[in-house]
Description:
The chain is α/β, with parallel strands linked by helices. It has helices spanning 20-24, 31-38, 52-67, 91-98, 114-127, 200-221, 239-248, 260-263, 270-280; strands at residues 3-12, 16-19, 42-45, 76-80, 105-108, 133-141, 159-169, 174-181, 189-192, 195-198, 231-234, 289-296, 300-307.
Amino acid sequence: MMYSRIIGTGSYLPQKVLTNKDLESLVDTTDEWIVERTGIKQRHIAADNESTSSMAINASIDAIKSSGLSEKDIDLVIVATTTPDQIFPSTACIVQNKLNIIAPAFDIQAACTGFIYAMSVADNYIRNGMSKNTLIIGSEKYSNILDWKDRSTCVLFGDGAGAVVLSADSKEGIISSHIHADGQYNDLLSVEGNHIKMKGNEVFKVAVNTLSKLVDETLDKNNMDKSSIDWLVPHQANLRIIKAAAKKLSLPLEQVVVTVDDHANTSAASIPLALNEAVKDGRIKEDQVLLLEAFGSGFTWGSVLLRY
Length: 308
């Protein structure tokens, strides 16, 4: 039986860092208020000459290098983003061209769940023999769609990119993936007039309840107990949501990869950024079981259970 396994991870964060203290001079907020409600302390902001595609390219180079493969080995490119460089061509085609990859390339738009959707799609391509080495990227330039006068949203998001190389292997990698959507909630979190609009309290409640059910679904499908999970690698939206998911799994925070304090919410980039950090610093080790989960606008939500 053929599985898909992560064989390389990579990331890119813009050099510019915007702290909560910096935001105090832009909007009516305080460092204490932001940290207490979100856990965020700072975020990275892309330079004017940086784009979703340029950040994606940097993360991809890092991931391909760590995989031991070369660009010519990649036979599928998927970019998860809600902030493409332009309406078309796709960001994936821009990345594919700049990296001289000869392969199909397309974008996936599922907001903050985009990377999970991309992983699920790539896993199916590999299991069905249609791809051997897929490059999956989550990249976002949210600073372009923030209203820097709206303190309820501008403090929450950041820019960055993360990538993985998913390869065909006879050894177990992705155990299962689960993706969902419910469009009846689309007015709670959306972009209107080029700026993010969010009803934060309502989003928070639905996110916590939905992710709790998602954990049950993922474990039940695989007849696994929560004690089998070595690491939770969640979407980095809010520390309170992350803590609720950890509690559901009876996991101490030491077994949860948390980057929201440094990165803020980077949407589709947040999970691959967090994954890369924990892989490169040695926390995540081979053969450990990881649960990746996300919730985003749409609403969309999903999980990937995998053995690293």
